[in-house]
Amino acid sequence: MKDRVLRVQDLAVHYKVREGGLLKPRVQELKAVDGVSFDLGAGETLGIVGESGCGKSTLARALLALLKPSRGRVLWLGEDLAKLSDEDLRKKRQDLQIVFQDPLAALDPRMTVRDIIAEPLWTFFPKIARVQVDERVRGVMKMVGLLPNQVNRYPHEFSGGQCQRIGIARALVLNPKLVICDEPVSALDVSIQAQIINLLKSLQKKLNLSLVFIAHDLSVVRHISDRVMVMYLGRAMEISSRNNLYKKPLHPYTSALIKAVPVPDPRIARAVTDTGLTGDMPSPLNPPAGCVFHSRCPYSVKRCQLEVPALRRLENEDWVACHRAEELDLTIKPR
Ligand SMILES: Nc1ncnc2c1ncn2[C@@H]1O[C@H](COP(=O)(O)OP(=O)(O)OP(=O)(O)O)[C@@H](O)[C@H]1O
Ligand code: SF4
Ligand SMILES: [Mg+2]
What we know:
Structural class: alpha/beta
Bound molecules: adenosine-5'-triphosphate, iron/sulfur cluster, magnesium ion
Number of domains: 1
Shape: globular
CATH architecture: 3-Layer(aba) Sandwich
CATH superfamily: P-loop containing nucleotide triphosphate hydrolases
Largest sheet: 8 strands, mixed
Strand content: 15-25%
Order of helices and strands: EEEHEEHEHHHHEHEHEEHHHHEE
CATH class: Alpha Beta
Distance between the termini: 34 Å
Number of helices: 12
């Protein structure tokens, strides 16, 4: 890959959880992220999609070294984040920023917009002049579509969409190279979602940002992503270019998610009831052996229950973790 900035190799985050109540407590391992690998280029947007609990936020936090990996590595510009000293990691954090799901909850209600956006500047440059801070804060407010004369207001005086713009301004104030957006539009009205996605897309282009955009739903990441990674029970099932993934997915789980995307026309929506998925998502404390998706996969064969499919690269540069990827034709029929 040209201009690679982020390299993730076999990344795993396993939590220790207590099970069994007070009388017979036992500690179990929950594999929230289990062997995820991918690269990200400068100015590239990777969409990450998967059902609730599949490990998206855990992955996001591990990418930013907010969590210690149980296995594997996160290389930022070639350096393993886990091996940096605290001081070097602190410096690197200037490049790596995050936007959270619930904009109002992520902003301190007692702080003005100026102080919320300026806080990272004070943290990284304690001696910075007030006039420089004000100039920068006003600059990023304009960049995200907020009025700089609202700088003395408090978060509760803004709508959900505006609060998310404040969160984005705060993430951009240090001029980062990578921004991870963890479900940045899930808490917003549908009409506002498109505005925030368009804003992030235009900022990404203008600033040549690398972006990781996390969502539940494949339709949300479609417009903004160059490539999309589909996760299931802590693993990457497929990483494909946007053009390939929505037309001819490689993994049966991706195909089921595409079929599950809501259709605005109710006549068509009624017709699309069969996603091919069977059963519920298994407990992450007790994932199926072999392919983790086999208990719900309509194409499962004996081998799938025995052997974990490796995430492998195909000739067209897309990645898939399915034993049968080459023989299945999962082309999506136009609705
Ligand atoms: N601190 C923790 N300790 C133990 N288990 C955790 C912890 N944080 C998350 N988990 C578990 O790890 C799994 C992955 O959680 P995570 O929040 O990463 O999923 P997610 O894909 O972001 O879900 P959502 O879409 O609901 O935000 C879940 O089973 C969750 O219950
Ligand atoms: S490896 Fe088998 S169970 Fe897993 S997705 Fe492929 S066909 Fe389905
Ligand atoms: Mg999450």
